[in-house]
Amino acid sequence: MKGLFLIFCGLSFALLCGAQTNESSRKEETPAAARPSRDIVPLPSIKALSAAQAAGKRLFVQRCSVCHLPALPSYAAYGPLLDKNLVEDRGDETIRLQIMQGSARMPGFQYTLRPMEIDEIAGYLKTLDLAKKD
Length: 134
Prior knowledge:
Blueprint lengths: L1 H24 L25 H18 L15 H7 L1 H10 L13 H11 L9
């Protein structure tokens, strides 16, 4: 008898939680496709990249994009948006040193990335054009 009561309580709780979840999921949300496309950061297709740049893209997405690209169109990136203009302004060597040594807000990758991988990321950054086009 006690076991049936506990099972009944558990099922009732699960159904109650499920009803609340369904209720909250019915709220109107703006789908990603309906958001302005200018807020979405476009990355170049892997087909348009050399092998080294494609490897740089893979590393950038794995290691850098979490801070250097906005997660959603409604959020700002934690770090600066990285693109070819930044590389041109600061120079290749400065970018490589920044990736290796890091800063107060950025970890250094000198112990986790090989010099060739850092060069691939720097090469990939030269393919990005993230300037806002309004």
